[in-house]
Each structure stands twice: as structure tokens, then as C-alpha cells.
Amino acid sequence: MRQVCAVILAAGMSSRMGTAKQLLSLHGCYLLEHVIQLALKEEFAQVFTVIGHEAERISLSIPIDDPRFHWVFNPLYRSGQSTSFKLGIRKALESHASVMVFLGDQPFVNSQTVHEVWAQGNRMLQAEQEPFVIQPFYREKAGHPVFFGNVNSHLFEELGGDQGAKPIIASMNRRILLPVDDPGIHFDIDSLADFEEAQHMR
Question: Bridge partners of 178?
Fold first, then answer.
């Protein structure tokens, strides 16, 4: 059951925030640390966190004592999120055929949501050979984290710039929208206003 890796995308320059949002203090720990700990609660084989902007400060500020955890530095982070996405996917799929992708600025995803997506993905891996994708779904909108099953890294190589995985998801024949009761799958902390709102959330 530990054949699935997690990838956390956290290499952005936080241009809208004006400071490295990965290291904003939120409810007693760093914003990115919330997401890392969320992923580590699940039975992932490995957890890769892709960083770029202020990578050294981030990695030194967030020590993680778990042998499954790895920092991945993206030297091309200024070229957009797609570079981090492809790097994380390549790293995860070196030894595994499935990956679950988290966003490093979504600290309010429920651990129950993570488990439900992970569990559904594992069930499908036992029964399916074809590529598939699972997305949590709340109030008629899909969110993160996203589970990619039975895939290889070549599938993602055409992505460029700040493009996310939407074109890849749209091209896949097997797409599962998993209903969850979790507004956190949509809440990104991009701006100071978002962060101020986040400080009043639990």
C-alpha cells in the first residue's frame, strides 16, 4: 500500500505576498510546514517537497525528521509552476507509478480528505492498469490534492510556464471526482488578504 508518493509544490516566489509565504507563521508553525505534516500523516512511500525561491532558508527553517521526506531544489523555478510540477513528478515516478500532488500554500485541507483520495487511489490501483486521476470535489469545483495513478513522467513533459496539470487531467480517459466536505481544497494563500483570513481559520 506504500507504492504512492506525495509531491508538494512550494517553489514559487510569492510575488503577490511580497515575502516568502512558505515561512509565514500560521497557528504556531510555518505555512509550508502545515502541508508537509499533512502529507506525512498518510502512508506515502516518500514525500518530495519542491522548493526554489529562498530554498536554503526554507529547508533550514523547517527540519523534518522522517526518512520518507526529501527536499527537491528546482533551479528553474522562475520559469513557472510547470517546472516544479514536472521535476517533482519525475522524481516521484523514478521508482513509483503513482503520485499525489499537493500545493504548498493550501494548509487547510483536511487530513480526512487526503486519506479519502489516497484510499480511493489505492483501491483503483488494485483493479486498473490504465492511467487515471482522482480529484477531491467540493461545491461543484475540483481541488487539491490530486492523485495520478498508473502514470509516467512523459505524460507531463509538454506543460510550460505557470501552467498547471489541467490539460493533462482533461486528456485522461479516467477522471474521478471524489465528493468531500472540505472547503480547504480550494483555499490558496496567495495574498496578504488571504493570509489575514487564514489567521482566523482553523
Answer: 136
